[in-house]
Amino acid sequence: MNIFSNLLSKPAPAQPVARQRRGIEIKSTREIEIMRQSSKIVATVLKEISQLVQPGMTTADLDTYAEKRIREMDATPSFKGYHGFPASICASINHEVVHGIPNPKKVIKEGDVLKVDTGAYHQGFHGDSCITIAVGNVTPEAARLIKVAEEALFKGIEQVKPGVHLVDIAGAIEDHVKSNGFAVVEQFTGHGVGRNLHEEPAVFNYRTLDIPNVRLKPGMTLAIEPILNAGSKTTRVLADKWTAVTVDNSLSAQFEHTVLVTDDGYEILTDRSLI
């Protein structure tokens, strides 16, 4: 789940999480193992949703399924109740960029570009991940946008290792997105993740002087999540105070993984290919 930057320091009122600590936490071996479990739950749910989604379903159907599966795996939905968010997944379609609220009246159609973002809270730690699903046959532009978004995520992840700065992740993502003619959404960032769904540091997807001068260390856990628009990078938030959409109604795509900084590189904790 991506964030407005001012959410980093705010505890979630309805989510049973630890008090937000100052600074960036280095997870212990035991804590990392728990995060592997919470992240595996997220990866499992997203993989299953990617396989079952089809035209005619509603975004509320997906939310019901996700919550059921998260709870079956001895976890609770990270998003439900988080700063008042009413559901277990964010389901954003086409020009909806992030934080789409599942709705029984929102029917998924052939050709839709569907973003599904979810998190799981297990034994005191969160996992967080997002996928973009091409529903049936999508346009060539939509297919390319989805492909570049996923590639951008891995371009960023490939930079992760001890000693690297956050700006290296941001630069790799930005360069890949812009070289393919798309726009990086700048209103939202990735984030640290662990005891709290959103922790320090903010993980930007473009170069800016606002990027914290953080050098990565083993034991850090980051949610890296590039968001791409086919048109303008600018978004606006709808009257529901959650759903962000593109200002020009262009398509948007997003991918996210929870990533551990290891002694010699990285481990993708929400890797769906391992499920």
Written description of the protein model:
By secondary structure, the chain is α+β, with helices and mostly antiparallel strands. The protein has one domain: Creatine Amidinohydrolase (Alpha-Beta Complex), CATH 3.90.230. 25% of the residues lie in helices and 23% in strands. It has helices spanning 29-52, 59-72, 140-157, 166-179, and strands spanning 76-77, 89-93, 96-98, 113-122, 125-134, 183-184, 190-192, 199-203, 221-224, 227-229, 235-237, 244-246, 252-254, 257-261, 266-268. A five-stranded antiparallel β-sheet has the order 8-7-9-14-15. α1 (29-52) packs antiparallel against α2 (59-72) and α3 (140-157) runs antiparallel to α4 (166-179).
Class computed from helices, strands and strand pairing: alpha+beta
Strand order of the largest sheet: 8-7-9-14-15
Order of helices and strands: HHEEEEEHHEEEEEEEEEE
CATH structural fold name: Creatine Amidinohydrolase
Could you name the ranges where pLDDT drops below 50 across 5 or more consecutive residues?
4-21
Number of spatially distinct domains:
1
Oligomer: single chain
CATH class: Alpha Beta
Task: Indicate the CATH architecture.
Answer: Alpha-Beta Complex
Number of strands: 15
| Strand fraction | 15-25%
Q: CATH superfamily, called what?
A: Creatinase/methionine aminopeptidase superfamily
Reported for the largest beta sheet, the result is: 5 strands, antiparallel
Distance between the termini: 21 Å
Number of helices: 4
Overall residue-averaged pLDDT value: 94
Radius of gyration: 17 Å
